[in-house]
Write a structure and sequence with these properties.
Radius of gyration: 26 Å
Distance between the termini: 62 Å
Helix content: over 70%
Organism: Tetranychus urticae (Two-spotted spider mite)
Largest sheet: 2 strands, antiparallel
Keywords: Membrane, Transmembrane, Transmembrane helix
Strand order of the largest sheet: 1-2
Protein name: Gustatory receptor
Strand content: under 5%
Length: about 450
């Protein structure tokens, strides 16, 4: 009887989650073409944010979700002292890391069988294992780095929009209704995509590691190989699910946080236009308040970018090179078989342009600050201001138009949207050169 109740409750919970997903997907398309009711849109967006945040906490993307702070929580035993799941993930990752080394350096069939080599005596076996070793190193390092930054309080700026879990109130967001609606649509879109990709991550990992077992003819000839490969594949699926979720989940936090800052900066243009209709009595005071607001929001945005500038550098260089490798092995080399080659090519093709689109969109937001400079110039030329107040506006104009306004990458590079376009194009050009010059030799 109790077993039947557990089965019924499990089925009902799955049906409820499926109903939530379908409802969110319908609302996403509906809100893209019609003007939504503010209350219903707020409730829908808040529920999506809550569920996505809960999923990132379950997959240990960030332990505290949006409840971050800027204080350090470092203890003498490291940041895994009270988190057993982090220890399990790290131990399983290290075991598979040393296993990859053993499969790369070893040539004994007996050891390969015990280590569960899924590509036993197969074509391009060594290249695939080396790729898996590099991917595991890159993703595991990224996840450990993010958790370390969270423990040290260096990503507290990502929680600036945490009140959106309950409502998208223009008063709390400090935006006009138009920018609130745009920001809400961005959050809904990114959250639905992130939620779906994280949710189906274990299924995707299962296909990646189970398909080689089914396509390798040696599995039928050596039962011990099939047994050990199946056992090892469980640990591979486990660690791949968490590492993939770390990248996707942190991207969700990053995109939503930068969107929040970007729309607050765009809202400054609306405020500057509103001042043109002010009377002379309140004009000077409103201009002073606008200047203070501009400085405060620029400081907030630049602080958020500065805290994660090395993470952005890691994403731009390491992860893009990994996507280039996937495309090269999937489209040019065609490693192992058509299924694995197409899978690698798909991941690389979708991963590489997404980084370029990310940079282009937020570079476009920063470029919109040129319009704010024009508005400030008009305000400075207005005869309602004194010489001292005009000088203050000119100082703020220099701050808005400064060369440092952009996406900070590392310590020495601040890039605009054109950089990401050229960066992705250079990657694609390099791959084309490899295709033309190396492709025929490989074939």
């Amino acid at each position: 009887m109790e077993m039947n109740l557990m089965v019924l409750s499990t089925k009902s919970s799955k049906s409820v989650q499926k109903g939530y997903f379908l409802k969110d997907l319908v609302n996403l398309f509906r809100y893209s073409f019609v003007t939504p009711d503010p209350d219903k849109a707020d409730l829908c967006a808040a529920q999506i944010v809550q569920r996505t945040e809960r999923l990132t906490i379950i997959f240990q993307v960030l332990r505290n979700g949006l409840d971050q702070n800027n204080s350090s929580n470092v203890n003498t035993f490291g940041y895994r002292r009270y988190n057993w799941l982090d220890w399990i993930i790290a131990i399983v990752a290290l075991i598979n890391w040393f296993r990859c080394i053993g499969l790369i350096c070893n040539s004994s069939d007996t050891v390969n069988i015990i280590l569960g080599d899924p590509l036993f005596r197969s074509k391009d076996r060594l290249a695939c294992i080396i790729l898996a070793f590099i991917t595991l190193t890159v993703l595991f390092s990224f996840r450990e780095w993010i958790l370390s930054l969270e423990n040290k309080g260096n990503i507290g700026t990502l929680s600036i929009w945490k009140f959106c879990r309950y409502s998208f109130n223009p008063v709390y967001l400090e935006m006009d209704k138009l920018n609130v609606n745009r920001f809400r649509l961005i959050v809904i879109s990114v959250s639905v995509v992130s939620y779906c990709t994280i949710f189906i991550g274990p299924l995707f990992a299962s296909f990646v590691f189970i398909i080689p077992l089914l396509t390798n003819p040696w599995m039928n000839k050596i039962p011990e190989l099939l047994f050990f490969c199946f056992l090892w594949s469980l640990s591979e699926i486990f660690i791949a699910s968490f590492l993939l979720s770390a990248v996707l989940g942190f991207s969700w936090y990053l995109i939503c946080t930068f969107s929040f800052h970007s729309y607050r900066l765009l809202n400054l243009i609306y405020k500057a236009d509103y001042l043109k209709n002010s009377t002379a009595a309140v004009y000077a005071r409103d201009v002073q308040l606008l200047c203070l607001l501009i400085i405060r929001r620029l400081n907030s945005f630049e602080l958020a970018v500065r805290k994660v500038r090395y993470v952005i550098l890691y994403i731009c260089i390491v992860l893009t090179l990994l996507c280039d490798t996937f495309i090269f092995l999937g489209l040019i080399v065609r490693v192992y078989n058509d299924f694995l080659a197409n899978l690698l090519a798909t991941v690389g093709i979708f991963g590489l342009p997404s980084i370029g689109v990310f940079g282009y969109i937020f570079g476009n937001f920063i470029s919109e600050l040129d319009k704010l400079t024009v508005r400030l110039h008009r305000l400075a030329l207005n005869n309602k201001l004194s010489l001292k107040e005009t000088s203050k506006v000119l100082e703020v104009m220099d701050r808005v138009a400064g060369p440092y306004n952009g996406l900070k990458v590392g310590d020495f590079l601040t890039v605009e949207r054109s950089f990401f376009i050229f960066y992705v194009l250079e990657n694609i050009t390099t791959l084309m050169l490899f295709t033309v010059n190396i492709g025929p030799l490989i074939k």
